Amino acid sequence: MAGRAHADAGSEGLPQANVKRVVKEKLAELAHEHFDDDRKEKDVLVNKDALLAFSESAKIFIHFLSATANEICRESKRQTINADDVLKAVEELDFPEFCEPLKAALAGFRKENDAKKQDSKRKEVARKRKAGDSNGTDGDIHVNGRLDEAVTMAEDEGFTD
């Protein structure tokens, strides 16, 4: 019966490898800050029960945070939780010290995501340009009734203000 309880907890829990990696990275960071640099660092050991406790704690925190963010969302008469709802929930749950690091992480994520979108857009333009070149064109942009596509390409290349 105990094995079944462990299996049930694991099936809905967070991936154990990720939990272990996050815990060990943080413990190693704390050990590095606490001890002198000349001390030889050893790998931090965490037993399975501790990992399960971390995982369950994180799961409970996520559920609590989700419920609070959902309340904030509903109060705003919306059905989709956004990042601002989560940040407000963090504040409401009395974790204001997490807000700035979360905002910084969110800004980094958005910046990375924007860069990926721009890269994807550039690749699409290059693919279209290459397809046009293989159709017997000499590399010049031919509108052929697609003015908006030509304008977008010009904007991407920085030819417009």
From TrEMBL:
<dbReference type="InterPro" id="IPR009072">
    <property type="entry name" value="Histone-fold"/>
</dbReference>
<feature type="region of interest" description="Disordered">
    <location>
        <begin position="113"/>
        <end position="161"/>
    </location>
</feature>
<keyword id="KW-0539">Nucleus</keyword>
<dbReference type="InterPro" id="IPR003958">
    <property type="entry name" value="CBFA_NFYB_domain"/>
</dbReference>
<protein>
    <recommendedName>
        <fullName>Transcription factor CBF/NF-Y/archaeal histone domain-containing protein</fullName>
    </recommendedName>
</protein>
<feature type="domain" description="Transcription factor CBF/NF-Y/archaeal histone">
    <location>
        <begin position="42"/>
        <end position="90"/>
    </location>
</feature>
<feature type="compositionally biased region" description="Basic and acidic residues">
    <location>
        <begin position="113"/>
        <end position="123"/>
    </location>
</feature>
<feature type="compositionally biased region" description="Basic and acidic residues">
    <location>
        <begin position="139"/>
        <end position="149"/>
    </location>
</feature>
<dbReference type="Pfam" id="PF00808">
    <property type="entry name" value="CBFD_NFYB_HMF"/>
</dbReference>
<dbReference type="InterPro" id="IPR051377">
    <property type="entry name" value="DNA_Pol-Epsilon_Subunit"/>
</dbReference>
